[in-house]
Amino acid sequence: MTDNTREVTSADLQSRSPAELSVYLRAQGWQLLHREGAVAFWTLPVGGADVEVLQPLDPDLRDYALRMGDAVTVLAAVEGRPTPEILRSIGAATWDVHTISLFPGEEEPGLISLEDGVWACESLEALLSAAAYPVFARQDRAVHPSRKLQGLAEFLRTVRMGPTLPGSYKLTVHTPVPPRLAEQLPLFEGDAAEEEPAERQVSLRLHAAVQAALEAADAALLTPDGLERFNAAVSRGVSANLCEALWGFGAGGRQSFEVSIALAAARPSSTPLPALRFRKDHLPVLREAAVELRARVPEENVAVMGEVVRLHRESPDAGEITLVGRLDDAEQLRRVWLTLAPEVYGDAVRAHSEMRRVSARGNLVRRGTRSYLTNVTDFTVLPGMGDE
């Protein structure tokens, strides 16, 4: 056993399944020779000779961790990489791994302020949601609805946060990918190849959308039609939601960051996915693009439920109210401005005086830092606690 192997514990080796190892071996070009009982024999030509790996197939074996360690040691020697790194690669064989590298200038390597770390984690979920929406909705939109689609919500529940990695400050998130069990070839001449599963589509879409946003931000710094570049990139997955998520990684403009993706070995791809680096001067462009996209494209059919905190009317005509409440299923409280017809404004006055909650539905428009609900329908004063 080498010094590198001592960095790996028995528990680490025991946690790696036979399926993960076999997927990794196939992806690296190893060929299965034969199987004898609870052991499979794999071979790979290296430097004119055949190297052999013995794979344990039963994790309940007493010496399973030891045998897994022997296999990892051989792989580390063949690939010239440390055993902990090999073990991480085996564990990621059925996951697409997305890495966000943050570069906080005034922090020690591997550290980040609590506030910026929380902001980055929230932005990570927002980035995945923004990339996944077009896959599950089957359409591209400049502004995504607040309510998550059922398939999208189910997908996000399968995503896992990984450990931070050495370097500046690196967040990792793992998305599961089903293995490819056969070559992606058409069954008959003229048929199209099988479509990638939704999980892999999200990964590819994420990279394409982030790359498009980076190109649009670069163009906006050089040309006077900057926003038009973002509008044109909507078909590639760019949205206000995506721009807001990317801006969040920059901690309000204080740090640069990089987005990279390593596709699962269980579903190899020949498509190169270069790392995408955002500079500090890209961040104000991303924020302004998000604001402008939301201002131009209202979010349709949004429901808001909350309390009336402000009333304002200067004539017998329509009046303006301010609600503090939640949009659709969102947990965060938001302040929303509505303009109501005279006959409905009276209901809002009653709700305010009786401290009743109200609900309304309409199109959400962002203007600067404010959110307005326009084309309001279904304005309703909700029953109080003592009402039947």
UniProtKB/TrEMBL annotation:
This is Uncharacterized protein. It comes from Mangrovihabitans endophyticus.
